[in-house]
Structures are given as C-alpha cells and as structure tokens.
Amino acid sequence: MLSPLYVLLPLLALAGAANIPHFPAHLTVKHLEQVPVEIQPLIIDGYDVQGVDNVPYLVSLSLTRATYTHLCGASIIGKKWLLTAAHCVKELEDFNGDALGTPVYAGITDRSNVTSAQVRYVDFVSKHRSFTGEAGSDNIALLHVSESFVFSARVQQIALPDIDDDYSNKTTAVYGWGLTDVDNDEYSKQLKYAFAPLLNRNACQELLPSDAPLSNQQVCSQIKTCYGDGGNPLIYWPIDGPAELVGLASWSYVPCGYASRPTVYTSVTSYVGWIYQVIAAYYQLN
C-alpha cells in the first residue's frame, strides 16, 4: 500500500508504518560505502539556508488561498512557469476542488515572514497525463502564473537539463521547508538544505525492496526528504554554469529516512521534451 508524501499534517500518523513508500534527481555512486557519511545529512536534520539569493528559483505552494499555508515546493523555470510534482497538484485539487488560483510565494527563506515575497497565482495547470497517483507513475506537473515574476537576486529561474545530460557521480542538493524531525507535526519555518552524491540505478535498487515501484524516469538520492518536501528541487551546480534542475522530490519510505532507504525523485531530464511540448501547446492555444 502506498502512502503519499503529500498527505496533510493530520494524517502524519501514517508515518508509523515502517515499510510503506510515500510521496514527498541524477544517478550515482557505485556503492553506498563510497558515499562519505559527512555529506549525506537528512534534510530533516539539514542546514539552514543563509540567503534567499542562494536558491532564488524555489517557491512555496500554498494549500489555501485565504492565508499562506505551505504545501509543496516548486521551481521557477521561466517568468511565468513553474515545475513541481503532480501529487502536489492533486492535493490542491482534492483540498480546494481546483488548483487554479493557488498562491505561489517566491523570494523567501523564512516562512514566518512572507511580507517581501513575490506572490503570484496559478492560472493554468498541466499534470502529466500518465500520473495515476501511484509512486511509480509520471509525477510531474507544469504551472503557469498570470503575472510574470520580477527577476532579481532573490527571484530567478533555474536551468533545465539537456535531454541527454548524465549526472552520474555528481553531488546534488535538495532544499525545502518540510519536517525537520520525524516526530514533529509542523513544517520548518526556515528553509533547509542537504547534499549528497546521487545513487546509480543498481545502488538504488540494492537499497530498496525488490518490489519498490522504481521507474526508468526516476532517480535516487541518499538525501532524505519528509512531509512538506514534495516537489522540492534536486539541484546540480556545474563549475562553469548556472544551477540545473535535476529532479523533483517524489516518494520515499516512511517513517522518513527508514532503514537508510533513499528518496526517489522524478528525473527532469526524462521529461524535458514533455515540458517544452506543453509550453509550446499553451502558447498556440492562448
């Protein structure tokens, strides 16, 4: 039975089941022993982000429209475009009846103070048509906002990977406002991050149960996400270029970090063609 990362806080008791995968990159490391322990902290025990200009492409999706209530993360990929996990959109639809009108908060690290945020509202949503709500399905969605973001040091877009990019054996980072402790019932106010090398497919499969719903469009990391981290960006920084969006936090086993099992991310590389097709179709129709 699958338990999604995007369940609401009152349902966190589900995390007591030790062997259930839940919803909340690119591959790598030939064997777990090769991953230095000091660079694989859990995001639930991660580090504070010191400045919003360190991660200006991350936004917070609000569950409710009247007041700000963090639900998921998303990444700015254009002045009016965001990329997130499809399960986050489904949660918005289930809670509000529709994801349209969802407030998006950009340019923040501390959620207790959003007065300086650029707030935009979703006016178009495209979930991947093959997303079924199951952990192994196509967990990705595009959001369009009605008013452009004003790019600055605090708000920027992140680069998409090329369709043939290979991130094997590269260190990536994840950012988010999810739970900082598996026993907590409140999402983090301060933005956290953690980083680690990525697991290649063989290493990932060795750490997951034989029946884990791991697809070819998903990748794994030893960075552990938790409730509230769904849709968070998995990021790689080239030496000579801008940050690249490698993955979106998708699912993992509960309780968070159980048995050192890796978190599974939607591989953005696998969906670059789909992203451009959706954006092109939108502008043809609007």
Quickly list its features.
single chain; 3 helices; disulfide bond; signal; about 290 residues; alpha+beta; six-stranded antiparallel β-barrel; Thrombin, subunit H; Peptidase_S1A
Structure description:
The protein has 286 residues and is α+β, with helices and mostly antiparallel strands. Helices cover 11% and strands 28% of the residues. It is built from three helices and 14 strands. The chain has a six-stranded antiparallel β-barrel with strand order 9-10-11-14-13-12. The protein has a six-stranded antiparallel beta barrel with strand order 3-4-5-8-7-6. It is globular. Residues 1-20 and 22-47 have low confidence and may be disordered.
SSE layout:
Layout: E1 20-22, E2 47-48, E3 58-62, E4 70-78, E5 81-84, H1 86-96, E6 103-106, E7 118-127, E8 141-145, E9 171-176, E10 192-199, H2 201-207, E11 218-221, E12 233-236, E13 244-254, E14 263-267, H3 272-285
Antiparallel strand pairs: 1-13, 2-10, 3-4, 3-6, 4-5, 5-8, 6-7, 7-8, 9-10, 9-12, 10-11, 11-14, 12-13, 13-14
